[in-house]
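Morning. Coffee machine broken again, so started the prediction first thing and wrote up yesterday's gels while waiting. Chain of 589 residues, entered below exactly as on the submission form.
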Amino acid sequence: MRSSAGSPACKLRVAPAPGRLLRGYPAVAPVLLVAMVLVATGTVLAQQATQENSENESNSIHGTVINATTREPVARALVHSSDNRYATMTDDAGRFEFTLPDPAETNAQGQVIRRISQLTLSARKPGFLDDRSQGKWTQASTVAETTIALTPEALIKGKVTLPSGETARGVNVQLYRRQVQQGSPRWSLANSVQANSNGEFRFAELTPGTYRLFNAEWMDNDPITFVAGSQAYGYPPVYYPNAADFASSSQIHLSAGQIYDADLSLVRQAYYPVKIPVTNIDENGGLNITVSPLGERGPGYSLGYNRTKTMIEGQLPDGKYLVEGVTYSALPGGRSLSSSGSVSISVAGAAAEGTSMVLSRGNSIVINVHEEFASTTSPDSSGTSRNTAQLFALHGPRSEVSVSAETMDEFGAQQGGSIRPPMGPDDDSLVLENLIPGKYWLRVSPQRGYVASATMAGADLLREPMIVVPGASQQVDITLRDDSAELEGTLDMPAASGESPSERAYIYCIPLPDSTGQFLYFSEYDDGKFRSLRVTPGAYRVIAFDSKQPEIPYRDAEAMKAYESKGQVVHFSPGEKVTLKLQPIQGVE
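Came back before lunch.
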């Protein structure tokens, strides 16, 4: 098989047989299998017949693999089916082609029957990422032209330097990525690497997004020559480019295919012993500890817990720190007990011992559910819940609504609590327990209707955070209604030739600030039409995209200003049916 610029696309004629991988050209199968392990993936969906009659009557699936950023063809990319029955390489013009068996079969009466199933085609090549958002559907019974778009990987590389000029070999460099979860931003560890013998580091296969970079603490003590009791030295975290804490470090905004240079210059500092006594802790339990520069939560520093001494211990350089501890213990009946505490400590040129960290039990919040349903008929609610000893049938509020709390902490250090298991067969109460003091978003998922309101001590929990106060007796009142609004409409986007209309667009209903609405999204169906039967009344910005948008920051009013020129603003009244015509926005926002 040969290919060259301007030559016809590479062809593969296959008559699949059971029990073999990459059937049709076993001579190159070992090479292709190795390539599939080494490279990233882009995917396009096609349709393949499940029945094969005659190779004399065939169908063709052909297309082009392109760079998603430059739109240029990608040569020598491996294109194969997910079941490994078909595989070929693109030519110098990025073209590929598969010749498939005729999908027709004949039944006992001589009638022609066609049964179509899905065939997933993937393109892979080193230096590119998985980009499934460009997936399309084609019909195997016709000549189908498909395009597979591969996103080039982004890179962050740099060098760690020491003030002495010595090699910073082994320094751990950590990369955090900003992601939007449930409309709120989160910073999570994307990867960590160690600097090589030249002090160099490299983060590869990065997707477009926002990142922050820093080095973990690195102690400068030779275990062979170090004398116990002598002054310890180390290199505190440096948050790129030269910040003292995570919050004030620079954000690295990566685009597809971008190579970003980020060097770190470490500063050697004296480290001093730190001790913090802990009280009210289960003697058999552990303690999760976070250490942050005072006033700015973030990763980088660390201390350990000495269970024998019930003491937090370690070393820190000069500075002021907030030290937080959380522990969890299992209780009978399938329950758990959380405790937490925090202390501030200052290190100033000498060993420091903080005041005792007193652990306090997590809060429990009673959830009261009020139903204001117009309909007298209700769906059957069933289910069970177990404590350690027994299995109980669900009834009352437990069977009608699911409630949880999601921390607003950008690093997820606080836990979201859990619904207390039933205490007996007649216990239908809803109690959120193990909530560590802090701020949370209340999540409510009713089995019927929608959440018309959720309040706690006058605070509107649909738009404001739920603030958990240590030791306080708190209750949440939730009102459910069933007069939802309804949305239907069409998309102003003609289907491409040979393309199935299935899931070509995604409709997002984004509540406006101070609206009673709740975030909702669903996919288009039925030849460019869409419909949702349950839209919470309120004001929304309704937008259609041609691909999923998993990181819409709908809880960030400032970030949502970027969407003000998109979609349509719609007010949904209770029980109202709204019809729209939307123009899908192309590409990932």
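The mean pLDDT is 79. Going to sketch it on the whiteboard this afternoon.
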